[in-house]
Target: Dihydrolipoyl dehydrogenase family protein
Amino acid sequence: MPGAEVDVVVVGMGPGGEDVGARLARAGLDVVGVDGRLVGGECPYYACIPTKMMIRATDALGEARRVPLLAGAADVTLDWAPVARRIREEATDNWDDGAAVERFENAGGTFVRGWGRLTGPREVTVTTPDGNERVLTARRGVVLNTGTDPAVPAVDGLAETPYWTNRDAVAVEEVPGSLIVLGGGPVGCELAQVFARFGAKVTIVQHADRLVPADEPEAGELLAKAFAEEGITVRTGLSAARVSFESGQFQVKLDNGETVNADRMLVAAGRKTDMKALGVAAAGLDDSARGVTVDERMRAAEGLWAIGDITGHGAFTHMSMYQARIAAADILGTDGDGAEVADYRATPRVTFTDPEIGSVGLSEAAARDKGLTVRVGLSELPSSSRGFVHKVGNNGFVKVVEDADRGVLVGATAAGPNGGEVLGALVVAVHAEVPVKLLRQMIYAYPTFHRAIEDALAKLA
Ligand SMILES: Cc1cc2nc3c(=O)[nH]c(=O)nc-3n(C[C@H](O)[C@H](O)[C@H](O)COP(=O)(O)OP(=O)(O)OC[C@H]3O[C@@H](n4cnc5c(N)ncnc54)[C@H](O)[C@@H]3O)c2cc1C
Ligand SMILES: NC(=O)c1ccc[n+]([C@@H]2O[C@H](COP(=O)([O-])OP(=O)(O)OC[C@H]3O[C@@H](n4cnc5c(N)ncnc54)[C@H](O)[C@@H]3O)[C@@H](O)[C@H]2O)c1
Model:
C-alpha cells in the first residue's frame, strides 16, 4: 500500500479501468487501482471471453450438423469437457487475476484488492478483504469503472432457488438436461443456444415481445426462427410469476398460468448498479440514478471521471475501452483543446448467436423517433449469390437505415454468417458519414456476404 495520497485512484478495474489506469501509470502518474473482485472485470472472467469460447465450440457443432446436406456425414460426440477446460485454463486461469495484476503493476500502477466508495471529493475509502478500511486521496482525481451486476427480478420464490447468472453459467462443468432462460437479450440468447447445442432442452421466457429487442425487429424474428428450428422453445411477452426448486427441478409458473419445469434456470434479465454503495453522493452526484452521467470527456464532476457500463452508453467492452482512452487523455491533458471527445453515433454491437447479429447506430424505429426523414433498404442473404452457394445456414439479411435529407447511413444491421465481421464496412459508413451515393459506387467483391450491402443500398426506399 502506497502513501495515502496519490495522483489518481481507479475504482473498479473492468476493461476500461485497467486500461485507463495503465495508461496513466505509464505516463508517470502515481496510480492506485482498486477492485473487490478480479482485475479485468466481467469481460475476461464471466462474460465476453468465456461465452465466446463456448460459442466457438457451438459454432463448430452447428457447422458439423450441416455436413449431411453438403459433404456426406459427420459423426459428432458431444463433450463439454474441452469447453469447460478452455474456460478454466485458457480464459480465466481458474478465476485467478495474477497475470492481470502483474500487467498493471508492470505498467507502474499499484493494485489494492477491496471494495471502494467515494467518501469525499477526490477521496476513496477501500474496505479490504480483511475488513480494514484504507483512505486514499487522489490529487488529480478518481475514475469510476465499477460496471454492473446481474439483475435478479423480484419474482416470488426465485431468490430461494439455486438459479444461475452468467457468473455461474461460465463455470459449469456439466450441461444440464434442461434449462429455463429468463430473458431473451444478448446474454439469454447466446447462452440458450450454447446449452441447446450441447443437448439441453432449453426454454427462453422473454418479457419483451421479441428476442434482442434493442435490435431491429427483423433480427428478433430471424433468431426466433433459427431457435425454433434448433428445438429451443421461445416464449415471448411472458415472465415468471413464481419459481420453486424441489427434488432437483425448477418449477417456473409463468404469468399466464402455465408451468415450465427444468433442471436449471439461468437469469439473464439485464444488469443493475448500486450508486449508493459507491458513495457518489459524496462527490455531489445523484445516488438514486442508475449510473453516472458524464460529459464528452468522461467528466462526472470536478476531479471525477466515469467510464464503462455505468455511463449508460452501451454495455460493451469496446465502449469501456473507448471511453478509457478519452478519459486518460483528459486527465493527462495531453491533447489540449484538440482532444478527442466521445461520439456514440456509430456504436457497434454484436450478438454472437448463429445467425450472428451485428448492428451499428440507429435502428429504423430509433431513427424515425428522432424525427429523421428515413429510408430503409433490406437484402436477404439466401437470395444473394453467396447465400445460394452457402446453402444451409445462410439465413440472414443486411438492413441499412438512411437519413435521406443528408444522404448518409445512420444505422445498419448485418445478420447471418459472420454478421459481426460484415458489420465492419457498415460501421465505417456510419462513423465517417460516407455519402450513400459514394457507397453505391463502390466495388463489392463477388460472391461475398458483404455484397448484400450493395443490394440493400439499391433498395433504399
Ligand atoms: C454474459 C455476458 C457476455 C458479454 N459479452 C460481451 C461481448 O461479447 N462483447 C462485449 O463488448 N461486451 C460483452 N458483454 C458486456 C461486457 O462484459 C461489459 O460491457 C464489460 O465488461 C465492460 O464493463 P465495465 O468496464 O463497465 O466494467 P466491468 O467489466 O463490469 O468491471 C467492473 C469491475 O469493477 C469492480 N467493482 C465494482 N464495484 C466496485 C467497488 N465499489 N470497488 C472496487 N471494485 C468494484 C468489479 O469487481 C469489476 O471487476 C457481456 C456481458 C455479459 C454479462
Ligand atoms: N455480444 C455482446 O456484445 C453482449 C453479449 C451479452 C451481453 N452484452 C451486454 O450486456 C448487457 C446485459 O445483457 P442482458 O441480455 O442480460 O440484458 P438486456 O437488458 O439486454 O436483456 C434482458 C432481457 O430480459 C428481459 N427481461 C427482463 N426482466 C424479465 C423478466 N422478469 N422475465 C422475463 N424476461 C425479462 C427483457 O425483456 C430483456 O429483453 C446488455 O447491455 C448487453 O448489450 C453484450
Remarks:
- Residues 233 and 387 are 27 Å apart (CA to CA).
- The first strand starts at residue 5 and ends at 11.
- The pocket of nicotinamide-adenine-dinucleotide (ligand 2) is lined by residues 153, 182-188, 190, 205-208, 213, 239-240, 268-271, 315-316, 349-352 (CB under 6 Å).
- The chain is about 30% helix and 25% strand.
